[in-house]
Input
Amino acid sequence: MQNEKELLDSTNKLKLIPISESDTDNIIKWRNSNLVKQNLFGSDDVTPEIHLNWLSEYVMKGKCCQFIIHAEGTPVGTVFLKNIDYDNSKAEFGIFIGESTAHGKGYGTIAAKLITDFAFQELELNKIYLSVFNDNKGAIRSYEKVGFREEGILRQDYCKDGHFMDVLQMAMFRD
Output
């Protein structure tokens, strides 16, 4: 089942609202923008049908908890926990800020803190992990501020636009 709980930071600057079908246009716009694609592992365009299938098969069935990031009342991106594995008490973290005007304002760090707290306190998970291109230094700094730590680097692990990229594996734990 889809999560229905909104998450709010202590300054009321940022709110995470569970994703719904009404967010489709923003998700499509953000996900297909070059700004977002440059840091994603998959760079194929997403159609409304693909997105709605994701909602139906993953979010609505509880395999993913996804939220829209609202900064001062405006939707600016999304943050999610996917591949939720309750048997092994872990999930994969993902985020993107889709509005260029929202970059560099700390919204990603606040959203990451809110969703990891949710993962540990509400979902009672033990581990949250992520993969990030090793040259995405801004994202890595943000993840470190929240508590993610390096687990290892996969050298030349992903081919993007004909270039092999190193992938940094990071994780954080409930304790």
Observations:
- Residues 107-121 form the longest helix (15 residues).
- Strands lie at 7-8, 14-18, 65-71, 74-85, 90-97, 127-133, 149-160, 163-173.
- The chain has a mean pLDDT of 93.
- The helical segments are 24-31, 34-37, 48-59, 107-121, 137-146.
